[in-house]
Amino acid sequence: MALTTFTSGQVLTAAQLNAVQANDYNQTVSTKTASYTLVAADKGTCVVMNVATANTVTVNTSLFSAGDTLVIQNIGAGTTTV
To answer: What is the DSSP string of 14-50?
Structure first.
């Protein structure tokens, strides 16, 4: 989900508020079911690892810049190594 920008005097609708509250950080969630190599488009997202066996998230050198963020969450039975 893209960052929502509001302007002075704009009325916040229920739909807009629900969209903002979709997750803790208003991030796009991308669920992976196998080992995964991060890409530049993952910046600012939540990558959810739902894998039954041991798996790896690979971060290539110089992919992100200082201050870039993303969340990696493991919900599968397998251990995720970054």
So the answer is: HHHHHHHTSSTT---EEEESS-EE--GGGTT-EEEE-
pTM for the model stands at: 0.70
pLDDT in tens, 56-76: 999 999 999 998 999 999 999
Q: Write out the two tokens for 8.
A: 């002075």
The number of beta carbons lying within 10 Å of the beta carbon of residue 55 is 19
Contact 57, 48 (CB under 8 A): no
Phi, psi of 65 (to 5 degrees): -105, 165
Q: Say how far apart CA 70 and CA 23 lie, in whole Å.
A: 13
Give long-range contacts, CB 8 A cutoff, 24+ apart: 33-40.
38/63, 38/70, 39/63, 40/64
d(CA 22, CA 17): 9
